[in-house]
Amino acid sequence: MQSIESVCGLSRLTSVIGDPIARVRSPGLVNRMLVEQQRENVLMIPMHVASRGLPELLTGLRHCQNFAGAIIAQPHQQSVCEWLDNVSPAVQMTGTCNVIRRSPDGTLSGTLLEGDGFIAGLRQQGIDVAGKRVYLAGAGFSASAIAHALAGQGVTELILYNRTGDKEVQLAESLSRNHPGLVVIHGTETPAHCDIAINATPAGKGEDRQQAFSLSGLAAGTWVCDTVIYPQMTPLLQAAERAGMQTHHGEYTLMAQLALMISYMLDPQSSDDQ
């Protein structure tokens, strides 16, 4: 992080807004990345804001001329959308926003970079999803963002599995509506004959030892991906590694997404079409 002495009247402010906020890692990680990217006079701070205070906060931030943008944490990622002036197609498709930025005229724009961050993280390991058959466990906002991003990158088939059937159906309908050429298949807990298998559920997070899906139908060499950040090697990834599969952990998505968020907040050329 930049030294406190470097903060001055020229400093631009970014933040992470959520409730609770005590355990978020974003401020420390982003401040380190800002230094690594040699972005001067920019810092990130946490803002602990309850739901009832979000509209008033956003109104105030419109008038804060050195406010550049904010990462939006839960529980605000859905409710923030109604207070923004412009939203990206990703927000329109999912109803979820996880980063906003302020324009010089005070307007606020928002996008969702969960899916783009996942794709960027895959690319760091040389994984190209175009033309691939992909299995995705989960149908929440994170899974939805990843599903739409995968569709936008040219996967040929997307196999969906979620323990709550209604959400899976809603996601399938949204994908078919927004990506007419995509083949969407309703899967089971045991994926087979796919190139990439992804967990986008909380299974395996923290002390949880559950696996979101079975690996028994997957061939050695299949890429098994997990969006869970801690632990880095989840029970799913540990089992995949033992079975000779290739693994991709959630830290790749986190760091790639933070880099995209920094660019969205600070670079005027970063498109609202993301």
In short:
Residues 16-100 form the Shikimate dehydrogenase substrate binding N-terminal domain. The chain has 274 residues and is an alpha/beta fold.
Describe the structure using short key phrases.
274 residues, Rossmann fold, 2 domains, 6-stranded mixed beta sheet, 6-stranded parallel beta sheet
What does this molecule look like?
- This protein has helices at 26-36, 54-62, 89-94, 114-124, 141-152, 165-178, 235-242, 250-266; strands spanning 12-18, 42-48, 67-72, 86-87, 99-102, 108-111, 133-137, 157-161, 183-186, 196-199, 223-226, 246-248.
- The chain has 274 residues and is α/β, with parallel strands linked by helices.
- It folds into 2 domains: 4-111, 3-Layer(aba) Sandwich (Rossmann fold); 115-250, NAD(P)-binding Rossmann-like Domain (Rossmann fold).
- The strands form 2 sheets. Strands 2-1-3-5-6-4 form a 6-stranded mixed beta sheet.
- β1, α1 (26-36) and β2 (42-48) form a beta-alpha-beta unit.
- The longest helix has 17 residues, at 250-266.
- The protein starts with 11 loop residues before the first strand and ends in an 8-residue tail after the last helix.
